[in-house]
Amino acid sequence: MTVTAVSGLIDAVSYLGLGHVFTANMTGNVVIIGFAAAGVPGFSVLGSLVSLAAFLLGAVLAGRLKTVMRRGSAPHWLRRILVLETVLLATATAVAFVAGHAVYALIALIALAMGLRNATVRKLAVPDVTTTVLTLTLTGLASDSSLAGGTNPRAGRRLASVLAMLAGALGGALLVQHTGLGWPLLASTVGAAGAALAVPRSSSAG
After folding, report:
1. String of b and e for 49-69 (b: at least 16 CB within 10 Å)?
2. Comparing C-alpha atoms, which of 205, 203, 176, 193 is closest to residue 9?
3. Is the distance from CB of 64 to CB of 84 less than 8 angstroms?
4. pTM of this prediction?
């Protein structure tokens, strides 16, 4: 759930601090591009396009890395990707502290990290662990509930994901408003590093 909380932090940084752009939630970027194309003020087509491009590049790289590391175990692969995410977020943190107005560089670095992670989580296919988008999680929580005649499968995991995202977004918003972009990005970096360290080691990892 740590990486889900990091996504909340990241969305707070990007949407509140980088010109109403999402770097983890690409659905939001597609919608924002539509708003901007319609002439709605306050939204950036260029920023959203940079984010989309970097995110897709990250997803492509994750796929290639999976091919290269196909003999390793899933934990080994996930740990490597989280380490790469940590490096990218650490670089973005440094940029934010040194050159806080380098908006497009920050967007590209963060979106690249999120693309790497999202493609990896998708390939691992852990049920109800998406880390960035909660629409399907919330849908499953409601449609599989006892109120809907279901058995509440994985309700705890689903609810924990929602709460983790909420906590990350809340903390990120407070940090962006009161400290700027560097500190919430540093918190994201620490969260990603912690998640990498928490991945269990496997004897099959090579």
Report:
1. ebbbebbeebbebbeebbeee
2. 176
3. no
4. 0.88
**CA 66 to mean position of chain CA atoms:** 19
Model confidence pLDDT, tens digit, residues 139-155: 888 888 888 888 888 78
Give 45-48's long-range contacts (Cβ < 8 A, gap of 24+). Answer: 46/104, 47/18, 47/19, 47/20, 47/21, 47/103, 47/104, 47/107, 48/21, 48/22
Tokens representing 106? 């920050």
pLDDT, tens digit, for every residue of 159-172? 888 899 899 999 99
Neighbouring C-alpha atoms within 13 Å toward the C-beta of 146: 1
Q: Please tell me what DSSP assigns to residue 21.
A: -
- C-alpha–C-alpha distance, residues 69 and 199, integer Å: 17
